[in-house]
Amino acid sequence: MPRIALFQARSGIHPDANSAALCDAIGQAAAGGAAMLFTPEMSGLLDSDRLRAAASLCAEDEDGVLRAVRRAAADHGIWVQLGSLALKGPGDRLVNRAFVIDDKGEICARYDKMHLFDVDLPTGESWRESAVYQGGKRPVLVRETPVGALGLTICYDLRFPVLFARLAEAGAEVIAVPAAFTVPTGKAHWEILLRARAIEAGLFVVAAAQGGSHEDGRQTYGHSLVIDPWGEVLLDAGERQGIHFAEIDLGRIAEVRSRVPALKHRREVPAVD
Fold first, then answer.
1. Can you say how many angstroms the Cα of residue 37 is from the centroid of all Cα atoms in its chain?
2. How far apart are CA 152 and CA 175, in angstroms?
3. Count of CB atoms situated within 10 Å of the CB of 154
4. Closest by alpha carbon to 236, among 267, 265, 205?
5. CA–CA separation, 82 vs 96, rounded Å?
6. 6 alpha carbon, distance to own chain's centre
7. 7-39 residue pLDDT tens
8. Tens of pLDDT, residues 172-181
9. Pick the catalytic residue: 58, 88, 106, 113?
10. b or e along 24-55 (b: 16 or more beta carbons within 10 Å of the residue's beta carbon)?
11. What CA–CA distances, in Å, run from 209 to 168, 185, 240, 270?
12. Among 3, 149, 191, 261, which is 20 to 30 Å from 197 by CA?
């Protein structure tokens, strides 16, 4: 029964400080017997001031946070699902990229967030991820990890169940949902959507989240969760920063899917005329 760790972070505007926190979390997770650590979206830098943030952004092969996490994973002999980093991508665009790093520090997989959040809120806030980021083009499944076959998503992807369905159909046993949910949407939708995705796909959902008051002034919801295929919440970190542990029984997947074989009954539904 794999033991996993989730790092509920409060990432800030200084990559070096975030890197140190990540490396410390990796050590704590390994010391606690976890085979794999999951971290939140934007683990390396969380800064809504785009001009200030731009000075810290670089391409993947130059990113100091990624380099430090890879070294710490190898030093401690633990796998890491690095929730995501903001990195320079093609042209003048950024990518919001997740990584799976093995216990030798090697990158096993990358996933760029597919669904980008563009919205104008009644409060006057406006978010335009597509103005800065380039969305990913395809789902990613890592077939061999200490927690079985691992599907990758990031934050807003949670609202698009077809992505979870495709990962489940491809053999996913666990899907990671690193996030930085706002407090209002977190209170209203976070647990409901995560439980729904776990139930629909009949698998485990592991959602490491940002939580608390950040240096750039934003507030994130926290409540990192681990949910089983029946929709049962195995871990809720609440508002507590730091490392949290859970154990997942992969045998539960077959048990639940035999009771509700929805994946076998799924049909392609044509568009409505």
1. 11
2. 6
3. 25
4. 205
5. 11
6. 10
7. 999 999 999 999 999 999 999 999 999 999 999
8. 999 999 999 9
9. 113
10. ebbbbbbeeebbbbbbbbbbbbbbeeeeebee
11. 22, 13, 11, 35
12. 3
Q: From the candidates 23, 41, 129, 200, which is the catalytic residue? A: 41
Both tokens assigned to 260: 């509700």
Percentages helix, strand, coil for the chain (3-state, rounded to 5) are 30, 30, 40
For the chain, what are the domain ranges? 3-263
| Catalytic site includes residue 155 | yes
113 given a catalytic annotation:
yes
The identity of residue 163, as a single letter, is L
Give 124's pLDDT tier (boundaries 50, 70, 90).
low
pTM: 0.96
Q: Per the structure block, which two tokens stand in for 109?
A: 């997989």
d(CA 156, CA 135): 12
Q: Name the catalytic one among 23, 58, 125, 155.
A: 155
Kindly state the DSSP code that residue 33 receives in the 8-state scheme.
T
Half-sphere exposure of 119 (CA within 13 A, CB side): 8
Query: CATH class for domain 3-263?
Result: alpha beta
Provide the pairing of β-strand 204-207 with 225-227.
antiparallel
DSSP for 245-273? EEE--THHHHHHHHHS-HHHH--PPPPP-
Handedness of CA 75, 16, 177, 140 (dihedral sign): negative
Q: Is 99:87 a contact under the CB 8 Å cutoff?
A: no
Beta-strand ranges (E) seen in 145-200 are 150-152, 174-176
Q: Which of 81-90, 123-132, 244-253 has the lowest mean pLDDT?
A: 123-132
pLDDT surpassing 90 at residue 130: no
